[in-house]
Design a protein that fits this description.
Helix content is 13%, strand content 27%. A hairpin with a 5-residue loop joins strand 7 and strand 8. The protein is globular, with a radius of gyration of 16 Å.
């Protein structure tokens, strides 16, 4: 699971000190990867975007405006599968802070209102199986809960 930052104001080459002015709010979600498709594509030297961009590949909770949520460095990010904790960390353990992520990305791309930035996942990435019940939480954000279904 990972923290998702919703951009509320366009920007390009945003300084770290101004980055939070571009944040609308936050969500929590799960950026899934279809590992079998990824593995096949890697072996063939092909792009593996289909392994990341399949239907329902990124469930997320509703976005909460930043003024309505208190996220601090000690806010816990946790992912459970069938009530078993698979990932658990805090925001302060992210490799880059939210302002640094926004600033770094805006050096490469113009950020637009409505863009979503997935900030990365704590250690503990593992397989999910059909029928698994997944819950992702972070501080006071609305939890992201979903069940892995059959492929369509």
């Amino acid at each position: 699971g990972e923290l998702i930052v919703a951009i509320g104001k366009d920007g390009l080459r945003i300084p770290v000190d101004d980055a939070m002015d571009h944040v609308y709010g936050y969500s929590i979600g799960c950026d899934l990867t279809c590992r079998d498709l990824q593995s096949q594509a890697k072996k063939m030297g092909r792009p593996w975007d289909a392994a990341k961009g399949f239907d329902h590949s990124c469930p997320m909770s509703p976005i909460i405006p930043k003024e309505d949520i208190n996220l601090d460095a000690n806010s816990s990010i946790q992912l459970e599968v069938n009530d078993d904790i698979r990932q658990q960390s805090t925001i302060d353990k992210m490799i880059y802070s939210v302002p640094e992520i926004i600033s770094n990305l805006s050096q490469l791309f113009r950020l637009r209102q409505g863009d979503l930035i997935l900030t990365g996942t704590p250690e503990g990435v593992s397989n999910l199986n059909i029928g698994d019940s997944v819950s992702v939480t972070c501080g006071d954000l609305i939890p992201c809960k979903f069940v892995i279904g059959q492929p369509e």
